[in-house]
Amino acid sequence: MKAIRRFSVRAVLPENLSALEEIAGNLRWSWHEPTKELFARIAPELWQQLRHDPIALLGAVEPSRLAELADDHGYVEWANRVRDDLREYLQEPRWYQSLGDAAPRSIAYFSPEFGIAAALPQYSGGLGILAGDHLKAASDLGVPLVAAGLFYRSGYFAQAISPDGWQLESYPVLDPDGLPLSVLREADGTPVQITLALPDGELHARVWQAAVGRVRLLLLDTDIPENEERLRSVTDRLYGGGGEHRLLQELLLGIGGVRAVKAWAALTGAPDAEVFHTNEGHAGFLGLERISDLVGEGLSFDQALQVVRAGTVFTTHTPVPAGIDRFDRALVERYFSTSLLPGLDVKEVLALGAEDYPGGSGDVFNMAVMGLRLGQHANGVSQLHGEVSRQMFNGLYPGFDPREVPIDSVTNGVHAPTWTDPMLRALAIERLGTDDTTHANWADAHAVGDADLWSVRNRMREQLVQDARHRVAAAWERQNPGGIAPAWMADLLDPNVLTIGFARRVPTYKRLTLMLHDPDRLRRILLDPERPVQFVIAGKSHPADDEGKRLIQKLVHFANEADVRGRMVFLPDYDIGMAQLLYPGTDVWLNNPLRPLEACGTSGMKAALNGALNLSILDGWWNEFYDGENGWAIPSADAAGDGAERDALEAEAMYDLIEHQIAPRFYDRDPDGVPSAWVRQIRHTLATLSSPLSAERMVREYVERLYLPAAEYENRLTADDFAAARGLAEWKERVRSAWPDVAVAHVDAGGVDDTPQVGDELHVRAPVRLGGLRPEDVRVELVYGRSHEGDDLTDVAVQELTVDRAVPGDEAGSAHEFVGTVRLAWAGSFGYTVRVVPVNDLLLTPAELGLVAVAS
Ligand SMILES: *Cc1c(COP(=O)(O)O)cnc(C)c1O
Questions:
Q1: In the Cβ-directed half-sphere of 812, how many Cα atoms lie within 13 Å?
Q2: Residue 5's pLDDT is what?
Q3: What residues does the DUF3417 domain cover (predicted)?
């Protein structure tokens, strides 16, 4: 019999164990080992079975066991200590509190997904886990962040694999009452309701709140009786629907999210958010809601836009065009031709998302483009991705070089306390005197010997092998209820064999099946009698992506063949819980995307924090961190004729590395059985990568390089009743309308003769027509570098020319001559030009307006 309705009844704890409830109510338990130990003690097996979920545990444990613990003085004391520690953690000054008054008092962080704990499945992959790690690190650093997202009733999806290797999706319905969530309520106890006006009715949402350490996460949920039936499903699942469904989700996330943050601040007395950070373009509508607010305060659209841009940080996450949301323009038009955002003209909205540049489409509304127009502070997620993004969005800044496109980069990081195996942490505590594995002195070989490190690595591999066996058998039993799993499953994999891990979502560019390029060679590698290798693989394909599912199927078919099945497994339902055992348990973490499509990649970082070595294409983070000692680089066959050839070359290179370098080194043991060359690499990896790969480093960078400047710019614009915002809007308008008349009339040069030499000085004088602008509205620049065929410049440098005098005889008095000198610093080809760009100290870079006039 199936229930028609389901809910969770929370346990009533004995009074002197009330600390447990308080502790379970804050997700800090998910990364705080001492707290987990406290829960594990209640019922160790149940704790394992329930996959480390305190709320489920407290609901499932026998009341007699709770009564027993309530009588156990030692346990009660322990629980109270952990609770006091939590309270202290929530209150005490941390890093951010040392920054002084200029630091924003509140920052709102928006993301379509949040991966915080396996018990709260609200993520599909890297983007969500990164958001979760961002919140946790912000909490640890004391950054006053409040986060907004959606509560998806079915999360992403649960994955099973059919006997024929086909991905099967199911959508188990989550019960928020059984999760670490509570409803945000008005002072009188009624639930806060967020409402959006739609073309044909209203969309209502309730707000769930989760405590992530010091950070509050607000999740909007439309599955409430106040909504018409069809609108209850707006937040049904993550990335489930197309077009209109997705648009509704994003309207709710952006617009509803800002309203929720405001409601929360008003109710709790928290300061209003000063900086808004959107993790990927999906939440971009938040800027429109804020503009609408300011228009309500009396600003014009353009004035409000200046303020909102100044305080908005936009992080782009994908160089893959399919990863960017592009809506049907007519659809967006329909939704904004309503009272959804009072004071906003639908034309102004549409202009923000218009692809009005060469190669753009007139029929779409592009969320990334809007993100850049609404966010003055933009970044990619690794240095290489920053470069790729600057090229990708160059069209928005015509006349500027890609390197001038105002998109910076902050390389992702991962939250070490979440992703470091407790065994490695215990080693750091015992031998290095710290539980902070990112700052522990792993280089100290006296304190932590090779054998110690190796022994932990062995135990982590063993733990993974056990978990894999358990998962494979459990999956089999779910598909064959009542049957007994085949015997070979019980000794699948080998805890002593070199283990390569590969797990990620399965979009084509990640090339899940590259390893199958030459199946016979792979088979030889796996079954090598002296130096065997085993693979543990996992990953979900988007439900609509049959191509991805075929890749999974191909892999599962291979892994099911009788000779290799002991050496290669595909584990269904990749999630945080699996990942936490998978990264530490692998010796080598493999990543073979098509360069440069992996914006950053974070799984390899999590592996490295546990002493796994990376084997990866030089893409994303690996491109900036590979140093020859911390793993291996698979060369990219950029020059290959086509995709197939490229795959072939890169796969061969990968096999070669495994066969000739990785396996020999792994199996080269000293008399005590320790592979000393390998352990040297582990030690080096831990000592050099743990700190820079941590989310703590990442969040500090966001604070210092993006949040602080964003707050500063926004404050400057809002001061004195928005004086600077009004001025800036007016100035931009003036510059835009004058710009067609701005020109470099000509360029005179002197100082070098027919045979210029290094050290000579080139004097330049350029009369410039300013079209009515003042000299201080622009900067005239000498741009020079090595010149090449087609007059392209490389190694470009820029030097500002200074205004010398008004051009004699210019009636309008607006033409001026600019002069400057540059020393010829290198031999060989030299080229230069002169250009004019607008400047204003409220712009971050002159490229912002996309206006430039170049000498012709
Ligand atoms: C880290 C992580 C990812 C993202 O890994 P990438 O290397 O960025 O693809 C996806 N899923 C889970 C469960 C993770 O923990």
A1: 11
A2: 66
A3: 13-120
pLDDT band at 485 (very low <50, low <70, confident <90, very high): confident
What residue's CA is closest to ligand 1, atom 11?
Answer: 125
The pLDDT > 70 percentage for the chain reads: 98
Residues with Cβ within 8 Å of 215's Cβ and at least 6 positions away in sequence, in order, are 135, 136, 138, 139, 143, 145, 146, 147
Query: 250: which 2 tokens?
Result: 């994003």
> Is the model more confident about 829 or about 336?
336
Distance 605 CA to ligand 1 centre (A): 10
Mean pLDDT in residue range 524-549? 97
- Please tell me the distance between residue 575's alpha carbon and the centre of ligand 1 in angstroms: 8
Give the separation between CA 603 and CA 366, rounded to whole angstroms: 29
- The number of CA neighbours under 13 Å toward the Cβ of 621 is 25
pLDDT of residue 152: 98
Contacts 24+ apart (CB under 8 A), 40-45: 41/75, 41/78, 42/66, 42/69
Q: How does residue 644 score in pLDDT terms, banded at 50, 70 and 90? A: very high
Closest residue by CA, ligand 1 atom 8: 601
- How many whole angstroms separate alpha carbon 404 and alpha carbon 222? 42
**Beta strand residue intervals within 592-739, DSSP E:** 613-617, 631-634
Q: What is the per-residue pLDDT for 1?
A: 67
Per-residue pLDDT reduced to its tens digit, 116-167: 999 999 999 999 999 999 999 999 999 999 999 999 999 999 999 999 999 9
Placement of tokens 């003085």 in the chain: 73
Instruction: Output the six-digit token pair for 753.
Output: 């003769």
- Return the pLDDT at 410: 98
Q: What class has domain 105-412+700-722?
A: alpha beta
Contact status, residue 501 vs residue 533, Cβ threshold 8 Å:
no
Which residue matches tokens 């594990």? 40
**pLDDT for residue 92:** 98
Q: How far apart are CA 542 and CA 550, in angstroms?
A: 12
Identical topology for domains 420-693 and 742-854? no
Domain ranges of the chain: 15-91, 105-412+700-722, 420-693, 742-854
Residue with the two structure tokens 């680089």: 633
> 814: number of CA atoms within 13 Å, CB side?
15
Q: Which residues line ligand 1 (CB under 6 A)?
A: 125-126, 129, 504, 574-576, 579, 601-603, 606
Average pLDDT over residues 381-405: 94
pLDDT tens per residue, range 798-828: 999 999 999 887 777 789 999 999 999 888 8
Contacts of 715 (CB under 8 A, 6+ apart): 274
CATH number at 420-693: 3.40.50.2000
How far apart, in whole angstroms, are the C-alpha atoms of residue 611 and residue 613? 6
Mean pLDDT of 86-97: 98
Mean of the per-residue pLDDT values of the chain:
95
Provide the pLDDT confidence category of residue 6 given band limits of 50, 70 and 90. low
- Structural tokens at position 321: 């065009």
Query: Do the bridges between strand 761-769 and strand 743-744 make them parallel or antiparallel, or are there none, so unpaired?
Result: antiparallel
Residue ID of nearest Cα to ligand 1 atom 4 = 126
Atom of ligand 1 nearest to the CA of 580: 15
Specify the CATH number for 742-854; select among 3.30.420, 2.60.40, 1.20.120, 2.160.20.
Answer: 2.60.40
Q: Which of 239, 411, 419, 504 to mutate to test the pocket of ligand 1 (most atoms within 8 A of CB)?
A: 504
* C-alpha separations of 153 from 110, 149, 157, 211, 544 in Å: 19, 13, 10, 19, 19
**Average pLDDT of the segment spanning 193-216:** 97
* CA proximity to 227, closest of 193, 252, 204, 250: 204
Classify the C-alpha dihedral 842-846-852-855 as positive or negative: positive
Q: Is the pLDDT of residue 10 over 70?
A: no
